[in-house]
Amino acid sequence: MSGQELIGYASAIVVGLVIGLAGGGGSILTVPIFVYVFHIPTVLATTYSLFVVGSTSLIGSLNHIWNKRVDVRVTVAFALPSFISVYLSRRFLVPALPDPLFQFERFSLSKSQAILYFFAIVMIIAARAMIHSDRPEQGEAADGQPRYKSLALDGLAVGLLTGTIGAGGGFLIVPLLVLMAGLPMYRAVATSVLIIAVNSFVGFMGDIHHTDLNWNFLLPFTGLSIIGIGIGLYLSRFVAPDRLKKGFGWFVLVVAIYMITRELM
């Protein structure tokens, strides 16, 4: 095993660690790790990411369910439309994208490049959200009554994002659950982890019909990520997640800039 691969496997622990501490954000690194460290094709990397994120988040959600932090009604309202969106995008949209996606004279934009550019843009948005991680007010749900219609529409949008780039979208889900459902932060984080888990597995199920998977690679990587979330859940008792998210946000921003620079070159 090369030094680069060792770094990649160590990064799996970091992915789980951040999900455990902050309820999201760590999954944004899985696709870059697969593409740039392990040299896995982009579309396959998004499939692998869905499995890793789903498995890791599922373990974390079991802890939150046991401690009764998950809001089941909000989960159903947000997640059902999201499930539909993520499955359809993985089953039909991503395979149907032409390759090259765009071509004009000598300029050509491949399907893989387009996904990576889109992913990098999402990473920049996620980094900004983590760096400016002031807790949102209760927004539309200031009266404590969830806005189920708004949650359903947001679920559709997050599902499309998850299906396209293979990231859990926790950096979007947590503030939406606070603003649209009026959940306190600790319950929004817990509910987000469960939504991410099921969303990711639904997207993964949309891929297995047309994808050959290397389980000898995928399972060890996932196992390390699960170890990471276990550590993160333990440390969450002692570490302030907001401070961690800001530092991690700057790191995600650097990775996004690296991705854009590398693809342009």
From TrEMBL:
The UniProt record lists the keyword Chaperone: no
Pfam families found in the cross-reference section: TauE
Keywords carried by this UniProt record: Cell membrane, Membrane, Transmembrane, Transmembrane helix
Gene Ontology annotations for the cellular component aspect, listed alphabetically: plasma membrane
Taxonomy, superkingdom: Bacteria
Sequence intervals crossing the membrane: 12-37, 43-62, 114-131, 151-179, 185-205, 217-235, 247-264
Compartments where located: Cell membrane; Membrane
InterPro entries: TM_pro_TauE-like (IPR002781), TSUP/Inactive_protease-like (IPR051598)
Topological category with respect to the lipid bilayer: Multi-pass membrane protein
PANTHER family reported in the protein's UniProt record: MEMBRANE TRANSPORTER PROTEIN MJ0441-RELATED, MEMBRANE TRANSPORTER PROTEIN YJNA-RELATED
Family note: Belongs to the 4-toluene sulfonate uptake permease (TSUP) (TC 2.A.102) family.
Name of the protein this chain belongs to: Probable membrane transporter protein
